[in-house]
């Protein structure tokens, strides 16, 4: 009896911004589903980006993709440099002649974020840098990668962000420039959905919930083994999810032949866990974007209802 072929066998994906966190998890889960995954970023074993985290590299991400069952290919890329992004997409074209999944996950602006500052108080250079990192990189990558993506019907473009349309729309996301950087991909997914649908392709926005990334665990002084203790610092951390959940979300979307029903929409990992029936590493289905507003209205709300 032949073993069933992985759902993304023969597919080619590009995860732009796959050094750590959600991008790394997405790359690994696409690989677990059988895809060839190009992983990009600025931190390699030879150089470290302005984020300043040398412990996570794109080479390590590529190795994790391969270990999961796919083929991981690390390509150092600064997505603010059009020539580098063009060379990247030309390489994918030369190697495979196709691109089936594009994940725009480039960010790297958290180190510039200072909460509780008005726009006139914030450092202007830092604010504009956040917009370049979180918006301009996505535009450049889309410009060069989409012509390859639309070569065949069925292509999927995922705009990664923080927050859903329903949550971000009526709320101020703490900081003027951060708000713009994280709301822009929501609109990008909508407009790209309009442009891609005539080619038989789909664009969506995807957000994790309260993400237990490597940097977030360090910031809360916890590990993946004792992460619940982070609730002592921030009570809503009880709804936190591992990067695996959003990784499984992206892989489920990429493997869904009916994904076009989501075209232009804003999606979350918690929503898709229920839609497709997968769980986080602990077997739960945390839904932060339902829990957080309810918690803000009533801090006694039972988190078990949202896991």
**Could you state the CATH homologous superfamily?**
NAD(P)-binding Rossmann-like Domain
Gyration radius, to the nearest Å?
A: 18 Å
Provide the CATH topology.
Answer: Rossmann fold
Backbone shape = globular
Integer average pLDDT: 96
How do the strands of the widest beta sheet line up side by side? 3-2-1-4-5-6-7
Low-pLDDT runs of 5+ residues are none
User: Helix count?
Assistant: 10
Q: What is the terminal-to-terminal distance? A: 38 Å
User: Which CATH top level class fits?
Assistant: Alpha Beta
How large a portion of the residues is in β-strands, by DSSP E?
A: 5-15%
> Please, what is the oligomeric state?
single chain
Task: Assign the structural class, choosing from mainly alpha, mainly beta, alpha/beta, alpha+beta, or little secondary structure.
Answer: alpha/beta
**Per CATH, which architecture?**
3-Layer(aba) Sandwich
- SSE string: EHEHEHEHEHHEHHEHH
Instruction: Give the tally of β-strands.
Output: 7
Largest sheet: 7 strands, parallel
Helix content: 40-55%
């Amino acid at each position: 009896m032949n073993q069933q072929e992985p759902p993304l066998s023969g597919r080619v994906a590009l995860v732009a911004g796959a050094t750590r966190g959600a991008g790394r998890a997405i790359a690994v889960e696409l690989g677990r589903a059988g895809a060839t995954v190009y992983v990009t970023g600025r931190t390699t074993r030879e150089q470290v980006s302005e984020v300043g985290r040398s412990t996570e590299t794109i080479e390590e991400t590529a190795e994790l993709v391969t270990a999961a069952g796919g083929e991981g290919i690390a390509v150092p890329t600064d997505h603010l440099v059009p020539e580098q992004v063009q060379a990247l997409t030309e390489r994918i074209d030369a190697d495979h002649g196709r691109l089936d999944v594009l994940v725009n996950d480039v960010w790297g602006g958290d180190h510039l974020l200072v909460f509780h500052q008005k726009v006139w108080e914030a450092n202007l250079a830092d604010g504009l840098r956040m917009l370049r990192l979180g918006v301009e990189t996505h535009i450049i990558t889309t410009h060069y990668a989409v012509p390859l993506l639309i070569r065949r019907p069925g292509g999927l473009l995922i705009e990664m962000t923080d927050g859903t349309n329903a949550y971000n729309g009526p709320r101020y996301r703490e900081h003027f420039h951060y708000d713009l950087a994280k709301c822009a991909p929501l609109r990008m997914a909508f407009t790209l959905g309009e442009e891609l649908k005539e080619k038989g392709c789909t664009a969506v926005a995807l957000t994790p919930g309260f993400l237990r990334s490597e940097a977030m665990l360090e910031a809360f002084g916890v590990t993946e083994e004792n992460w619940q203790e982070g609730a002592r610092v921030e009570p809503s951390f009880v709804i936190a999810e591992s990067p695996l959940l959003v990784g499984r979300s992206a892989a489920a979307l990429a493997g869904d032949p009916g994904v076009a029903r989501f075209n232009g929409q804003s999606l979350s990992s918690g929503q898709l866990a229920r839609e497709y029936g997968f769980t986080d590493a602990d077997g739960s289905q945390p839904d932060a974007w339902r829990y957080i507003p309810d918690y803000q209205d009533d801090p006694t709300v039972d988190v078990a209802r949202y896991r």
